[in-house]
Amino acid sequence: MPLSEVHNADCLKEMKKFPDNHFQLAIVDPPYGIDAPNMNMGANKSKNKSGTSDSVANKLRKARFSKGSGKLKNRALNTMSLDWDVKPPVEYFKELFRISENQIIWGGNYFDLPPTRCVVCWNKLQPWENFSQWEMAWTSFDKPASMFTYSNKGGANNEKKIHPTQKPVPLYEWLLMKYAKEGDKILDTHLGSGSSRIAAYKLGFDFNGYEIDKEYYQSQNKRFESQRADLDQFRTFVEETEIPINQLKIL
User: Fold this and answer.
1) I need a labelling partner for 38 at 20 to 30 A (CA). Which of 3, 54, 114, 141 fits?
2) How many CB atoms lie within 10 A of CB 171?
3) Distances in Å between the alpha carbon of 52 and those of 46, 48, 55, 73?
4) Of the candidates 227, 107, 92, 105, which has an alpha carbon nearest to the alpha carbon of residue 164?
């Protein structure tokens, strides 16, 4: 069975421990970097019920929550804190490029990255125009751009969200089948909901993941362990049938 090592730790500190090109592929989803917690719109910050200042991030969350209704009002992004959404420092990207041979970076349009023709788009089948209908990832590959279509909510993707920016496991399965090779070691610096970990384990890739938030770390670990038996069963089937990874059907 593949290795699946995850740590409740600061990824930047941990990346410095690895030699150059230790990982063949990094698939990461860092904070997109509006730096909302540090924004101060005006001289004074409003106070919350406890008497302390609310960050702009949480003001935005509360505004979305009060304006929403039904399922939109209760979606994970509206009910969780946004204080984590701070842009990674330049050093993060330097270390990421140093320790990995290739990279797939979600939200690449928010960061200062080299030009690439191989962008990846996830069509979320999002019917509401005031929400993002697709997301883009920057990649280091010299290949044509590609698109993956999969619903962000409902239908096949009806799992309860445990992280504000949670992406579906089949999206990561598709990325691994399309861009990773058998035997590759996979890195995820911002583990979040753990979807990348589940996909890597299911497809037989050794995996290292980091999540600095203790609650998210524990939630993704619980999610992974709850699915582990089914994943092991799938792995046994793949090994017995000797189906190449790039020929597997996304389930």
Assistant:
1) 114
2) 25
3) 8, 6, 10, 25
4) 107
Give the list of residues 6+ apart from residue 230 with CB closer than 8 angstroms, or none: none
d(CA 88, CA 246): 32
Band (pLDDT 50/70/90 cuts) for residue 173 is: very high
CATH architecture of 4-33+89-247: 3-Layer(aba) Sandwich (3.40)
Top mean pLDDT of 128-137, 210-219, 223-232, 239-248 is at 210-219
- What confidence score (pLDDT) does residue 157 get? 59
Write out the residue limits of the CATH 3.40.50.150 domain(s) in the chain: 4-33+89-247
Q: What is the pTM of this model?
A: 0.79
